[in-house]
């Protein structure tokens, strides 16, 4: 076994995973425009309506992972994600908070739920994530959730910047993001522990990195579809008579 | 039952399916540039390398359909598609012809087969087609193949226009297209017969139209991803340091 193929230590493996942050969708030009306050009303609405599709598929994705997981202790922890998004007891959950964000941005609840604004490119990217969770092992699917390592920055950025940059958005619409910052940290610890434990050989560790890259590709691809539609004004079939 | 919900006649249903031609990717601006001879070498190569992913997934998709089809007579006919693409006996098949096209455009065989040039957005769109074929009924999947009704025009256009517009492409690279024109007509007859027979009520007929639209969305979405990468020069992570 050469030095090149020796497994990374736990610390080095974690560092390799975290180094993928450079591909996080925070660096997509759509997010840069968003951060700089340069998106107009329709561009914000388009983003919310399309991100909504991702949000509603998260519990589906997590249920697929549960259905592939024979370990009860893991399921007890992983189930929390479904409770977070669908809600439980008095907590209306993340999907409802996202609907509130959409309403604060001037969208109708029914329009959001109908998915009429969801772009095909966004649908295909998000569905790729769900299908991966259905077909991969539960540990591979847990690894694909690790973009959550990078999410707190983007949530904090929105909390800090949106009230000033987009004053027309009712500020209680940001409730979703306030809640997600603390949940994401807890989720990451679990997903990271599974990943560091499961992917042992160098080949397996590289596979884990490829899985994380796949997930990053999904997030970037979603914004590419939104860029074409809302920034370039080239939504599907724009050139058709 | 009101007039609005009465099933369309066979003729009217077929006309409704054919009317979807207005959304065919022949009208995408990428294809318009291609037709006008305005694509450069890299833009042609990018298109071939990405379309190659679609081509290699067709036999996978058709095998998924076979695996959902309990009707032996249908399978005997549908299997021909796999023979066409993978090849049989002395016929090297459509995938080999597509490799020859890539080589004629200056790409290396290994580079094409490695899929290194396949854009995430293209991958997600094509995989959506394969996953649909896996999970839908064989008749629904047969309906999704009906964009073949519109394909002969695009094949003839390339046969007519490419030697003049792109003289640097070795003309025997167009072998694939010459072969596909006749095969597509035969395939369409079978797919159309299945569709006209299976989708009976107005609701089912509308569902068939939605399936065809889904497939049109896939083809358009593939070109959107290529447009971002090769025309806008915004491939994935272009803005990352």
UniProtKB/TrEMBL annotation, chains A, B:
<protein>
    <recommendedName>
        <fullName>Pyrroloquinoline-quinone synthase</fullName>
        <ecNumber>1.3.3.11</ecNumber>
    </recommendedName>
</protein>
<dbReference type="GO" id="GO:0018189">
    <property type="term" value="P:pyrroloquinoline quinone biosynthetic process"/>
</dbReference>
<dbReference type="InterPro" id="IPR039068">
    <property type="entry name" value="PqqC-like"/>
</dbReference>
<comment type="similarity">
    <text>Belongs to the PqqC family.</text>
</comment>
<comment type="function">
    <text>Ring cyclization and eight-electron oxidation of 3a-(2-amino-2-carboxyethyl)-4,5-dioxo-4,5,6,7,8,9-hexahydroquinoline-7,9-dicarboxylic-acid to PQQ.</text>
</comment>
<dbReference type="InterPro" id="IPR016084">
    <property type="entry name" value="Haem_Oase-like_multi-hlx"/>
</dbReference>
<keyword id="KW-0884">PQQ biosynthesis</keyword>
<dbReference type="InterPro" id="IPR004305">
    <property type="entry name" value="Thiaminase-2/PQQC"/>
</dbReference>
<dbReference type="Pfam" id="PF03070">
    <property type="entry name" value="TENA_THI-4"/>
</dbReference>
<feature type="domain" description="Thiaminase-2/PQQC">
    <location>
        <begin position="15"/>
        <end position="224"/>
    </location>
</feature>
<dbReference type="GO" id="GO:0033732">
    <property type="term" value="F:pyrroloquinoline-quinone synthase activity"/>
</dbReference>
<comment type="pathway">
    <text>Cofactor biosynthesis; pyrroloquinoline quinone biosynthesis.</text>
</comment>
<keyword id="KW-0560">Oxidoreductase</keyword>
<dbReference type="InterPro" id="IPR011845">
    <property type="entry name" value="PqqC"/>
</dbReference>
